[in-house]
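quick one: uridine-5'-diphosphate bound model?
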Amino acid sequence: MPVAPEGRTILSVVVPMYDEEAALPALVARLRPALDGAGVSYEVVAVDDGSADRTAELLEKERAGWPELRVVRLRSNAGHQAALTAGLHAAVGAYVASIDADLQDPPEKIPEMLELARAEGLDIVYGVRTDRSTDTAFKRRTAGAYYWLVRRLVGKRVTAQAGDFRLLSRVAVEALKELPTDQQQVYRLLVPWLGFPSGQVTYQRAERGRREQQVLGRQDGPARDGERHHLSAAPLRLATWAGRGPASCSAC
Ligand code: UDP
Ligand code: MG
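yep, here:
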């Protein structure tokens, strides 16, 4: 892994993955050049969230030729947010970005997030969608109602179009790690709640991926993370049930 002169990894990129064998090659093909071109020491922390397909095997193969790739394997499927928690705990970078594996969010924006955070001394850079035209009308309406409610409960700092594509400083990561993890975290609420200096980069979200179609078609199997969201920070307890919102909307 290339390291900074002071021996410090500058950037970690956490990628939660559940049954992503189909998405993995395309992800690597875009994520690796984007990070190689960023000009900083980096690591990718792929969190295999108990995948039942060939995700683990493919990650091992990739690791052989990509020294910056680290793999964290969870014993069983714990859900998107729990996989993010595992990744945040494993990441060593001075900044930690998170991105989904399905390329709905562009990896090419990560260096831009890092530059912005460093130039302006920000602890949080949100990836903010410029529009929801790739979502269904129903999803747009439920998401709108959800964020209206959450902003009433948690405060105006919650950006309506920000999901789990973001960059955090080490200080922000450590603050999140201090929070109790006895219940599922909902980072899109917890991160704004921290109230740290923040900025945003905008992008257009890609078409809904294979995953969502797969979820729609799924009748049984383990509960998805969206089905068991709870908030753990005390000031956010009120919003516990609302935490189910975004992921429920995702499945709409
Ligand atoms: N994911 C995960 N565990 C799960 C479900 C999803 O780690 O139980 C990962 C998934 O592989 C992807 C990210 O979380 O990288 C977001 O999942 P998805 O694309 O299904 O979410 P959506 O786009 O519907 O919000
Ligand atoms: Mg997705």
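Residues 100, 102, 104, 209, 211-212 surround magnesium ion (ligand 2) (CB under 6 Å).
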